[in-house]
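Repro:
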Amino acid sequence: MQEVLSKTDDPKAPLRGQEYYELSLLDEANELGTLYRVRQAHAEWSEIDGQVMWDQVEVDYFWILDEAKRRYAERRLTLAERGFIYSDMDM
């Protein structure tokens, strides 16, 4: 599962001044079993580079899927409280 969260759902909103968060829950199989990864990355417009730049990557790893889902939900709630309520998964 992977989604991009923003403060607007207007597809015509200019990128300049916008911020986004990518939130994902992915699984990685290895010799010990399945490891679940919850990843959050921040993106915003960079005047210097003239494009959206990704930074502030935070990753948590879990062996138990329910714990990973709980962490994903916590991160999503925190972002929603900061105004990032629109998801590309809702479109």
